[in-house]
Amino acid sequence: METFGLTIIEAMAYGLPTIVPPIGGPKEIVKHEVNGFHHRSDNIKSIANTLHILFSDQSYYNKISQSAKEKAKEFSQEMFDLSIQRAFRFV
Question: Is the pTM of this model over 0.85?
Answer without folding.
Answer: no
